[in-house]
């Protein structure tokens, strides 16, 4: 059990008073509805439950475990202030009304929220609705924990609002019947609040809560369902404050009035500060374990910690690969651990996980063996890794992040009995899983008498899923099943780093599955057009780069529906990122901005003159951006296209003319665009399903390139063959 210090005990008493104040009108509201309530009992029950709630919250979120250390430390002692930048990527909208609502909220934002280097606490104080986005392990969950604690410590904190924090882990959501109201009520119910659902509704209606929804990407429910549910919940209870987090790759649907911010990766100052804190805490822990230690010994350890931190920083400066890995808290903690133990640094993130996890497993197994009867002890790191990979893969496939202990032991026992050899002699026990909890890989929680098991960070689970796939040679089975599922992206990247000597199988499997997304004549026609244009281009860029560039021309435009139009615009983001992996010379920002403006103008039914001007602007931006590609002017003649578009100026219908007239004019613009560029005639009749297939195709190709880049070694011959087939119909 964690002992509460004086400050935390004071916080608990203040939280009790804040709950009493928040619920002071509840008994009267019950009586007005014709109900009965024992007010004296109610006040007593609230006091007791609020005290338990505050204690649970502090124990759950005020402490953290540095990887490799068995000692918990306070979050404040290791936390580094995060910076953010405005996130401007394209999301999906279900309707024009949703789009207009999002724009209305954006226009209401103050200017500061559109910049970079925004301080997280300042933004949390200013904004009622926040969407925090970032790459894996960048610190999204830690930020939510930090803000929640600041809210809990109010008014003795830098958080300005008197709201009570409720932390909701989205990985607990696994059924369409799950809802946020139920999840919040359960947080109060398990602490003993009477009438928890009614109390929850009361506090939500009064605006008493700070709702922290962590890991939108970790839920097994569809992102469409989650985004719609969150929007409806916020509309029902708008007076509370909300912070939601998600990985970038999974976030494709807008949450309406939420300000979207991307968490920046750490710069040198952040990294140096974290390294210093890591070594200080680590060496303080060593001093505490030495019962004979003196104040002089502690002082010496502090000096050593400072020296070791400086040494670690110098090593990172000399190792470019390790320096690139150091831009997230989890990876940097692994690097600090390896530097502290005088071990060499790995070549990619998968190697970093493998080396750090194996190190702490070895140390924990040794401690376990020393404390147990050697005659009965057969636990080893190999056995623990097998168990971890089995648990990780099984739970990820079943979309279960939280495993009841009974189910887990039955599953592991079933696995163990299916083997012969040393493994069949292993007994699954609570003590066995406690070994894993001590090193920070897993958590064992007991709530209301029910014990459950979960990985302490989803990236640990993803790493062991990747190891399971590699160990069991499941690449050809997994890729077709999960390639288009963004929830599996990090697993594929980790797998690419693990598969030393055989990453080509993964790359070829991705290529084959990607090709299967081009499954209609319209999609094939787009790639055929790109290939023909590429053949007749004279630029010095790689052929694959020129094919990707041509996609910016072949992208279907002038669609009537907003949803597929925005998906296609988002697809250009994938194309732009894919292009940058082969060539950095053209800057597609202007093209992207023009394309987005045109899509929005069409969706919001702007006047025809504005639409035509935007099309002419897009033509000019494409010409300037793609000038180095040097397309054959017999096929791609921007001057001719611009002239034909400008010839339509005299035919522009006024906005007061019937919609059918303006729609005919838009179709006329479309015909000029398609005919002048010799594009497939039915390009703009592409279906929503084909749009999604095209986006998945681009996503798969980009993921394939990322996997190649993260791998330690790839056959030059194999990769050159794969590269030659990107964005081509090859019949593989």
UniProtKB/TrEMBL annotation:
SUPFAM superfamilies, sorted: P-loop containing nucleoside triphosphate hydrolases (SSF52540)
Leader sequence residues: none
InterPro entries noted in UniProt: NCH2, P-loop_NTPase
Domain NACHT conflict system C-terminal helical as annotated: residue spans: 641-728
Highest taxon of source: Bacteria
PANTHER family with a match to the protein in the record: SLR5058 PROTEIN
Protein name in UniProt: NACHT conflict system C-terminal helical domain-containing protein
Organism (species): Pseudanabaena yagii GIHE-NHR1
Origin organism lineage: Bacteria, Bacillati, Cyanobacteriota, Cyanophyceae, Pseudanabaenales
């Amino acid at each position: 059990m964690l002992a509460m210090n004086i400050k935390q005990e004071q916080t608990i008493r203040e939280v009790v008073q804040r709950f009493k104040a928040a619920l002071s009108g509840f008994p009267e509201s019950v009586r007005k509805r014709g109900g009965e309530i024992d007010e004296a009992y109610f006040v007593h029950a609230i006091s007791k439950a609020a005290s338990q709630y505050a204690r649970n919250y502090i124990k759950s979120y005020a402490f953290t475990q540095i990887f490799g250390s068995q000692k918990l430390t306070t979050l404040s002692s290791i936390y580094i202030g995060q910076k953010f930048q405005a996130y401007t990527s394209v999301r999906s909208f279900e309707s024009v009304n949703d789009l207009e609502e999002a724009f209305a909220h954006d226009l209401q934002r103050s200017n500061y929220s559109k910049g970079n280097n925004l301080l997280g606490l300042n933004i949390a104080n200013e904004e009622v609705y926040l969407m925090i986005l970032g790459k894996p392990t960048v610190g999204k969950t830690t930020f939510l924990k930090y803000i929640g604690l600041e809210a809990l410590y109010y008014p003795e904190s830098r958080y300005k609002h008197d709201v009570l924090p409720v932390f909701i882990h989205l990985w607990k959501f696994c059924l369409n019947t799950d809802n946020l109201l139920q999840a919040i009520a359960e947080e109060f119910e398990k602490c003993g609040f009477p009438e928890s659902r009614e109390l929850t509704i009361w506090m939500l209606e009064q605006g008493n809560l700070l709702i922290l929804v962590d890991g939108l990407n970790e839920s097994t429910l569809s992102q469409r369902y989650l985004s719609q549910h969150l929007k409806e919940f916020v509309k029902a209870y708008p007076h509370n404050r909300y912070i939601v987090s998600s990985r970038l790759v999974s976030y494709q649907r807008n949450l309406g009035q939420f300000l979207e911010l991307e968490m920046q990766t750490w710069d040198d100052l952040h990294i140096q500060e974290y390294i210093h804190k890591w070594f200080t805490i680590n060496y303080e822990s060593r001093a505490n374990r030495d019962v004979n230690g003196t104040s002089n010994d502690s002082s010496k350890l502090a000096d050593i910690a400072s020296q070791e931190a400086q040494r670690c920083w110098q090593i990172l400066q000399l190792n470019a690969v390790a320096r690139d890995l150091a831009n997230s808290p989890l990876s940097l903690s692994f690097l600090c651990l390896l530097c502290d133990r005088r071990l060499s640094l790995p070549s990619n993130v998968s190697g970093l996980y493998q080396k750090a996890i194996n190190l702490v497993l070895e140390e924990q197994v040794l401690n376990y063996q020393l404390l147990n009867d050697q005659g009965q002890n057969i636990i080893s790191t190999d056995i623990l890794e097998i168990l971890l990979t089995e648990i990780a893969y099984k739970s990820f496939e079943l979309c279960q992040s939280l495993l009841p202990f009974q189910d887990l032991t039955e599953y592991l026992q079933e696995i163990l009995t299916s083997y012969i050899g040393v493994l069949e002699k292993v007994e699954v026990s609570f003590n066995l899983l406690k070994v894993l909890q001590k090193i920070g890989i897993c958590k064992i929680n007991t709530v209301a008498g029910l014990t459950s098991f979960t990985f302490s960070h989803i990236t640990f689970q993803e790493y062991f899923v990747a190891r399971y796939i590699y160990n069991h040679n499941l690449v050809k089975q997994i890729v077709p099943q999960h390639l288009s599922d963004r929830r599996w992206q990090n697993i594929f990247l980790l797998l690419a780093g693990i598969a030393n000597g055989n990453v080509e199988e993964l790359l070829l499997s991705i290529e084959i599955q990607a090709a299967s997304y081009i499954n209609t004549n319209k999609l094939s026609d787009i790639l055929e057009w790109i290939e023909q244009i590429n053949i007749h281009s004279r630029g010095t860029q790689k052929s694959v780069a020129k094919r990707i560039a041509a996609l910016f021309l072949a992208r279907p435009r002038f669609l009537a529906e907003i949803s597929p139009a925005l998906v296609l615009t988002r697809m250009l983001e994938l194309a732009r990122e894919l292009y940058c992996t082969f060539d950095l010379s053209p800057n597609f920002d202007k093209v992207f901005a023009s394309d987005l403006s045109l899509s929005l103008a069409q969706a919001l039914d702007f006047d025809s003159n504005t639409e035509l001007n935007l099309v002419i602007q897009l033509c000019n931006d494409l010409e300037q951006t793609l000038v180095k590609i040097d397309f054959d002017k017999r096929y791609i003649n921007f001057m001719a296209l611009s002239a034909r578009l400008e010839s339509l100026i005299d035919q522009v219908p006024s906005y007061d003319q019937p919609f059918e007239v303006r729609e005919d004019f838009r179709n006329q613009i479309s015909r000029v665009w398609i005919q002048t560029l010799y594009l497939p005639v039915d390009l703009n009749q592409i279906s929503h399903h084909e749009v999604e297939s095209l986006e998945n195709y681009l996503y798969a190709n980009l993921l394939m390139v990322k996997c190649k880049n993260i791998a330690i070694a790839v056959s030059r011959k194999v990769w050159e063959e794969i590269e030659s087939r990107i964005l081509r119909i090859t019949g593989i």
